[in-house]
Amino acid sequence: MYYLLIDTCNWMDLGLLSEGLENVLARLEGLINDGEIQLVVSNVGLYEWKKKKDIVIKNNTSLLRDSFKVAREYGGLSDNDLLQKIADIKKIASALCNRIDILLANAIPVSYSDKDIKLMIELALKKKQPFKRGNNSVADALMLLSYFSYVEENDIKHAIFVSRNPKDFSDKPEPPDGEFHPDLQSLNKCAVLYYENIGSALNVVKDGTIDDTTIDKLDNQILVSNELLAAYQVQEILGSITGVSNLQLIVDKSGLQESLSKMVNTNDAQEALIKMMDTMSFVDQDESE
Q1: Interatomic CA distance for residues 39 and 55, integer angstroms
Q2: Sheet holding 108-110: strands in order across?
Q3: CA–CA dist 71, 242 (Å, integer)
Q4: What is the pLDDT of residues 39-62, one digit of tens each?
Q5: pTM for the full model?
Q6: How far is CA 89 from CA 31, 64, 73, in A?
Q7: What's the pLDDT tens digit per position in 70-124?
Q8: Residues forming beta bridges with residue 248, ordered by sequence position
Q9: Residues 6+ apart with CB under 8 A from 176
């Protein structure tokens, strides 16, 4: 059995409405039910999730609302259909987050001790990870240190920590699987493994649990903002409306690109948007008549 502690940012990813991510959550549930994984949650992480759960639901709704508005303009979605789809999305997003609530409610709770607090203060004063960037990483530090203490005190042989926040836990932008930053590795007495990608972590527990395509999708989710996810979802939404698997749109390409561009405001998002547009097949209006 593997013990697994998952950072709040990864739970927020799993709360996003995406077929690949929902599959990861389902596989995690399956491994827990089969006794392959024992989930652990820190009191800090549980507090953060409760605080951010509503934000996840709101993000799902607001992001897809923009996507549906584009679909209404270019795919013939009526106003009533738009409102109904937004309401449906909120229900689905709430149900998805409730599944995460159930997992966390049944996880082993771990609290930080005075020893963990003292060690956290020492790391901060010496500007070691996760404090090297000068930001407030108290919660991250206490979450990880309390997990290290729990694993050591209970002599756990197989433990994994998952966080798509490598700037706090690693010394590399894309850390090698299993490795913490040296500042933290020196405190890791029981060889807890660090994974940025939760799909890769689940494959350590049981090989082949998550396919390579989903692993890549999770990597992309790590690298780009949530607003970019909305742009990618437009293609799927428009495809479902038109019923065409190899999407062909009888619209003005520049007009659609301008509409989608309003949904994203970062350089990475704009570049990915251009790549997404290149995968879509367009038919000139003159040719369709």
Answers
A1: 23
A2: 108-110, 37-42, 2-6, 159-162, 193-195
A3: 10
A4: 999 999 999 999 889 888 887 776
A5: 0.73
A6: 27, 8, 19
A7: 656 655 566 677 677 777 878 888 999 999 999 999 999 999 999 999 999 999 9
A8: 281
A9: none
At 249, list the tokens: 């749109």
Structural tokens at position 38: 């024992």
112's tokens: 């930080």
